[in-house]
């Protein structure tokens, strides 16, 4: 086997290339640039040690790869296959990382949209954007508060600054009392809508009619009603017989 | 792991409840409740101190910044988890599709090349020395 350097250093000096009018070597169309001058081995009698040949494209290939290239027969650019990794996108990664429970929990059913559904016990209106009242977490990151001071309890003198006037706060300042509206049951909603104009169901109307009929059919009730009417008519001043009967009694 | 969060959660809940009570006292302040107010203010300071102490236990916890956007918009942060899982599954399926297609393409290419260049492909198979997927 030939030594490695012998493969790339030409044994014979190449023929002198024609130079251009300016003395520079001509550029070969479609080929590579001229590279360095051809005085590779230098003058034979000079004391300067021979300069190693410039690294060419072929010489930049590592030894191992060159060997594999030679063993690749008629094929070039044949490289080693990438090592087979156990975990690729061809496997279900959610199952691989045991996330099926989380997947079922979050993707199986509908997750409620609002923050108050996630933190139902938190007082105040938390569904409004944080940028409105300058309470966003993003602003906390962008402008971090000044930290480092220790937390010391307030003494008597310091607490005098927190003496408040008696009386209620104005409505707009009572933020803690505002709660996000909670959804009511569908049943309640239906009854609410029915309240202003309750539609008569057939069963309801039948029931009422029946009651009315029962009342009318009741004979005692009828008689009493008649008696009442008679009495009324007797006492009324318009009734012709009323005055006479009364007068007759007198 | 869960204990750390439980501890922080407990402190946060106490702090929020204290602030709520403080709000109630302040919303309709009576001079007689000044002592209660002072007590609540000091509870608030100790509450903040307790929360600050929890920081040491949670220094290795990382939170994705996108979650903060959800919270700032008044949205449920669980939606972020849901969308992440859905995106991961969609990407997983996409990559699996690509891998399967490339495998099919490789076997078909080898099959067709073997018809046209049988000798070369025999050499190629000898070099590779692998089991090609069935076409």
TrEMBL record, chain A:
Residues 35-45 have a biased composition (Low complexity). Keywords: Activator, Nucleus, Transcription, Transcription regulation. It comes from the Eukaryota. InterPro entries: Mediator_Med19_met (IPR019403). Its main location: nucleus. Residues 11-28, 46-56 have a biased composition (Pro residues). Residues 1-66, 180-250 are annotated as: Disordered. GO terms for biological process: positive regulation of transcription by RNA polymerase II. Coiled coil: none annotated. Residues 180-191, 222-234 have a biased composition (Basic residues). GO terms for molecular function: transcription coregulator activity. Signal peptide: none annotated. Component of the Mediator complex. Belongs to the Mediator complex subunit 19 family. Component of the Mediator complex, a coactivator involved in the regulated transcription of nearly all RNA polymerase II-dependent genes. Mediator functions as a bridge to convey information from gene-specific regulatory proteins to the basal RNA polymerase II transcription machinery. Mediator is recruited to promoters by direct interactions with regulatory proteins and serves as a scaffold for the assembly of a functional preinitiation complex with RNA polymerase II and the general transcription factors. This is Mediator of RNA polymerase II transcription subunit 19. It comes from Pyxicephalus adspersus (African bullfrog).
UniProtKB/TrEMBL annotation, chain B:
Component of the Mediator complex, a coactivator involved in the regulated transcription of nearly all RNA polymerase II-dependent genes. Mediator functions as a bridge to convey information from gene-specific regulatory proteins to the basal RNA polymerase II transcription machinery. Mediator is recruited to promoters by direct interactions with regulatory proteins and serves as a scaffold for the assembly of a functional preinitiation complex with RNA polymerase II and the general transcription factors. One of its GO terms (molecular function) is transcription coregulator activity. InterPro entries: Mediator_Med10. GO terms for biological process: regulation of transcription by RNA polymerase II. One of its GO terms (cellular component) is mediator complex. Belongs to the Mediator complex subunit 10 family. PANTHER family: MEDIATOR OF RNA POLYMERASE II TRANSCRIPTION SUBUNIT 10. Component of the Mediator complex. It is found in: Nucleus. It comes from the Eukaryota. This is Mediator of RNA polymerase II transcription subunit 10. Pfam families: Med10. Keywords: Activator, Nucleus, Transcription, Transcription regulation.
């Amino acid at each position: 086997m030939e030594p490695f350097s012998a493969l790339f250093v030409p044994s014979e000096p190449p023929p002198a290339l024609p130079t251009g009018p300016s003395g520079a070597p001509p550029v070969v169309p479609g080929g590579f640039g001229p590279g360095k001058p051809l005085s590779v081995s230098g003058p034979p009698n000079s004391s300067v040690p021979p300069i190693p040949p410039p690294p060419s494209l072929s010489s930049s290939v590592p030894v191992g790869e060159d060997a594999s290239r030679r063993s690749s027969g008629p094929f070039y650019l044949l490289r080693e296959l990438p090592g087979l990794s156990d975990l690729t996108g061809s496997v279900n990664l959610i199952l691989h990382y045991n996330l099926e429970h989380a997947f079922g929990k979050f993707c199986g059913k509908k997750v409620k949209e609002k923050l108050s559904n996630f933190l139902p016990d938190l007082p105040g209106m938390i569904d409004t954007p944080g940028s409105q009242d300058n309470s966003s977490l993003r602003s906390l990151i962008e402008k971090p508060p000044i930290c480092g001071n220790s937390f010391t309890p307030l003494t008597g003198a310091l607490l005098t600054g927190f003496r408040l006037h008696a009386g209620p706060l104005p409505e707009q300042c009572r933020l803690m009392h505002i709660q996000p509206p909670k959804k009511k049951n569908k049943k309640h909603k239906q009854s609410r809508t029915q309240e202003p104009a309750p539609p008569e169901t057939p069963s309801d109307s039948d029931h009422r009619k029946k009651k009315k009929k029962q009342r009318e059919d009741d004979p005692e009730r009828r008689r009493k009603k008649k008696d009442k009417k008679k009495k009324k008519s007797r006492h009324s001043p318009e009734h012709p017989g009323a005055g006479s009967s009364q007068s007759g009694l007198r | 792991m869960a204990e750390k969060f439980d501890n922080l959660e407990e402190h946060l809940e106490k702090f929020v409840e204290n602030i709520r009570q403080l709000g109630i006292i302040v919303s309709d302040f009576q001079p007689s409740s000044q002592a209660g107010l002072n007590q609540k203010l000091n509870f608030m300071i100790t509450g903040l101190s307790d929360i600050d102490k929890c920081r040491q236990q949670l220094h290795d916890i990382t939170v994705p910044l996108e979650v903060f956007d959800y919270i700032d918009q008044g949205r449920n942060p669980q939606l972020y988890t849901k969308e992440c899982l859905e995106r991961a599954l969609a990407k997983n399926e996409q990559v699996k599709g690509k891998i399967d297609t490339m495998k099919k393409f490789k076997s078909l290419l080898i099959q067709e090349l073997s018809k046209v260049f049988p000798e070369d492909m025999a050499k190629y198979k000898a070099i590779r020395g692998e089991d090609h997927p069935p076409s």
